[in-house]
């Protein structure tokens, strides 16, 4: 890999800024000062320093985001802002994309990465990766609804969902509303909303709080994101892909 690409991809500066940094003789490859960005390096073996501070290269990027409403889970869209618009130019250049989709009016946990193998593993229908949602419902969810979820809801197009878990968190009989937690192991189009609709109720707010071993960071405000922690990356090893 070229040294200038290594430095830019490591997120320390843009390509144009990297050129200036190199001219200022602030970069070392092992013990040798380097001013030419075309110099080839081995990102696994060579030690690169900027102002005597070691620079590490990450092959894959991982971000957890608290997705807001009104933003689409896509890499590009002609009508709406995308989650990539929120994470910045560097991540976009590194090929980061959302793992799965959240509806434009759904908020909460979203994983973004440029690791295609991990995304495939987490989204594969064969893996049955569990996703957890908290939903505000117009209508009173009942024990009968819980039984229906456990048996497997039949959607409006005849599709029979896998057994799912419905937990009733609270009920407001005066306003005919419910707060529930729903766990599913599929990802059909509008699935949670359609499952609730099959019970004769309507989802009025939907938040995803987890996907597989990863959970929404409650300290993140809507639209905020951060890199995954080491403990979270460790948890992703269950998918048996290179991280």
TrEMBL record:
Gene3D superfamilies: Alpha-L RNA-binding motif (3.30.70.1560), Pseudouridine synthase I, catalytic domain, N-terminal subdomain (3.30.70.580), RNA-binding S4 domain (3.10.290.10). Signal peptide: none annotated. It is an enzyme of class 5 (isomerase). It comes from the Bacteria. CDD domains: PseudoU_synth_RsuA, S4. InterPro entries: PsdUridine_s_RsuA/RluB/E/F_cat (IPR042092), PsdUridine_synth_cat_dom_sf (IPR020103), PsdUridine_synth_RsuA/RluA (IPR006145), PsdUridine_synth_RsuA/RluB/E/F (IPR000748), PsdUridine_synth_RsuA/RluB_CS (IPR018496), RsuA_PseudoU_synthase (IPR050343), S4_RNA-bd (IPR002942), S4_RNA-bd_sf (IPR036986). One of its GO terms (molecular function) is rRNA pseudouridine synthase activity. SMART domains: S4. One of its GO terms (biological process) is enzyme-directed rRNA pseudouridine synthesis. Pfam families: PseudoU_synth_2, S4. Residues 1-64 form the RNA-binding S4 domain. Keywords: Isomerase, RNA-binding. GO terms for cellular component: cytosol. Its EC number is 5.4.99.-. Belongs to the pseudouridine synthase RsuA family. This is Pseudouridine synthase.
């Amino acid at each position: 890999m070229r040294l200038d690409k290594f430095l830019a991809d490591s997120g320390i500066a843009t390509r144009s800024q990297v050129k200036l940094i190199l001219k200022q003789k602030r970069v070392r490859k092992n013990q040798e000062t380097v001013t030419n960005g075309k110099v080839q390096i081995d990102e696994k073996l060579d030690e690169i320093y900027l102002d005597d501070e070691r620079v590490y290269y990450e092959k894959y990027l991982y971000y957890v985001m608290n997705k807001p409403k009104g933003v689409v889970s896509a890499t590009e869209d002609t009508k709406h802002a995308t989650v990539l618009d929120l994470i910045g130019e560097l991540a976009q250049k590194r090929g980061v994309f959302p793992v799965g989709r959240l509806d434009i009016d759904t908020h909460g946990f979203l994983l973004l990465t440029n690791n295609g193998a991990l995304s495939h593993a987490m989204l594969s229908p064969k893996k049955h990766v569990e996703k957890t949602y908290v939903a505000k419902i117009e209508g009173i969810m009942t024990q009968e609804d819980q039984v229906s979820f456990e048996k497997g809801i039949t959607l409006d197009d005849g599709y029979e969902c896998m057994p799912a878990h419905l937990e009733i968190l609270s009920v407001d009989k005066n306003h005919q509303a419910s707060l529930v937690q729903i766990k599913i192991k599929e990802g059909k189009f509008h699935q949670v909303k359609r499952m609730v609709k099959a019970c004769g109720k309507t989802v009025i707010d939907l938040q995803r709080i987890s996907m597989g071993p990863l959970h929404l960071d409650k300290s993140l405000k809507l639209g905020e994101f951060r890199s995954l922690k080491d403990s979270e990356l460790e948890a992703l090893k269950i998918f048996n892909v290179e991280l």
